[in-house]
Design a protein that fits this description.
globular, 76% helix
Length: 299
C-alpha cells in the first residue's frame, strides 16, 4: 500500500510481518523511545519496593503481635491463624501481589497515553493516512496497552519473587510460592494489570483529550472505592441485602474482588463476578473507542 504521508514509527519498525504486526511494533517503539514510558516504569519499580516494605512491616506485626496492643489470648489466636497453612499461603500471596491496588494505576495511565498522545502531538493524521483502517490502528494500540500492563506485572512479580522468600525466611515462615493459592493470586494479578492497561486505552479513545482522559481515569479509579461507602449508607436506610455486595460495580472494587483470594470486603460476591465487571467495562470502552474513532474527524 502506498501512503501519502509516512509514519516515522512504522518506517523504523521491521518491514517483515503483517500490517497489524508492524503497527504493534510501531506502538512499542513509541513507548520505548519516549521518556514517559521509562518514567512510568521507574516510578512503578520504586512504588513496588515501597509497597513490599510496608506490606512486610504489617505482616511482621501479624506474626509477632506487640505486647500491650492486644490481649495474650488474642495474640496467640492471631499468630496461630497467621502461621496456619492457609494463613501462610495468604501471606505469601499478599507479598507476591504487593502494591497491586495502586500499581495498576501505572498501567491505566500509560494505556491512556498510548492513544491520547497521538492527538496531543497531532500525529494521529499521519497514522490514519498511513493505515486508513482505523479499527486496525486501535486494535494495535489495544495490544500495546495490554503488553505494557503485562510488563508492569512482570516487573512487579520478579521483584516480589526475589523479596518474598527472603522475607518469609527472616520471619521463620516456610511455604511454596508455586502453591495454587499463590499462583492463582499472581495470575489474576496479571489479568488485572492487562485489563487496566486496555481500560485506559479505551477511555482515552473515547475521550481523546489527554488531560481530560487522565483526570477521568484517576477519578474513575479512586472514586470506585467510594461505592462501598455509598451502598453501606443505602443499606442502613433501606436494608436491602443485595446492597452489601453492590460495590462490585465500581471498576476498582471489581478488580480487587477478582484478585483477592478471600472476600475483598464483607458480603463481597465471588471473584468471578469482579472479573466479569472489570472485563465488561474494558470491552465496552474499547468498542466505544473504535466506533467513535471511525466516526470522528482525525483532527
Amino acid at each position: 500500500m502506498t501512503a501519502l504521508l509516512d509514519s516515522v514509527a512504522l518506517d523504523q519498525a521491521d518491514d517483515t510481518g503483517t500490517t497489524m504486526v508492524r503497527l504493534i511494533r510501531a506502538e512499542f517503539m513509541k513507548v520505548r523511545t519516549t521518556s514517559t514510558g521509562w518514567l512510568f516504569l521507574t516510578g512503578f519499580i520504586v512504588f513496588t519496593a515501597m509497597a513490599l516494605a510496608i506490606n512486610g512491616f504489617g505482616i511482621h506485626h501479624q506474626l509477632y503481635p506487640q505486647q500491650g496492643l492486644v490481649s495474650r489470648a488474642q495474640a496467640v489466636a492471631q499468630v496461630a491463624q497467621a502461621r496456619s497453612p492457609a494463613g501462610v499461603a495468604a501471606i505469601a500471596a499478599s507479598m507476591m501481589t504487593s502494591g497491586q491496588r495502586v500499581g495498576v494505576l501505572f498501567a491505566l495511565l500509560l494505556g491512556v497515553l498510548v492513544v491520547t498522545s497521538e492527538f496531543a502531538n497531532q500525529t494521529a493524521a499521519v497514522t490514519f493516512v498511513t493505515v486508513p483502517r482505523r479499527t486496525t490502528v486501535i486494535m494495535a494500540k489495544v495490544a500495546a496497552a495490554a503488553c505494557c500492563g503485562a510488563l508492569f506485572w512482570l516487573v512487579g512479580t520478579v521483584i516480589a519473587a526475589v523479596s518474598t522468600p527472603l522475607f518469609l525466611y527472616s520471619q521463620h515462615v516456610s511455604t511454596s510460592l508455586a502453591g495454587w493459592s499463590v499462583s492463582r493470586s499472581v495470575l489474576l494479578n496479571l489479568v488485572a494489570f492487562v485489563a487496566w492497561g486496555v481500560f485506559g486505552l479505551g477511555l482515552g479513545a473515547v475521550l481523546r483529550s489527554q488531560l481530560v482522559s487522565v483526570i477521568a481515569a484517576i477519578a474513575v479509579y479512586v472514586g470506585s472505592f467510594g461505592t462501598e461507602l455509598v451502598f453501606t449508607a443505602l443499606y442502613n436506610s433501606f436494608h436491602q441485602g443485595w446492597m452489601l455486595g453492590a460495590p462490585v460495580i465500581g471498576p476498582a472494587v471489581a478488580s480487587e474482588v477478582m484478585t483477592t483470594s478471600g472476600p475483598a470486603f464483607p458480603y463481597a460476591p465471588p471473584g468471578w463476578v469482579g472479573g466479569v465487571f472489570i472485563i465488561g467495562y474494558t470491552v465496552t470502552l474499547v468498542a466505544g473507542g473504535v466506533v467513535l474513532t471511525k466516526r470522528r474527524d482525525v483532527i
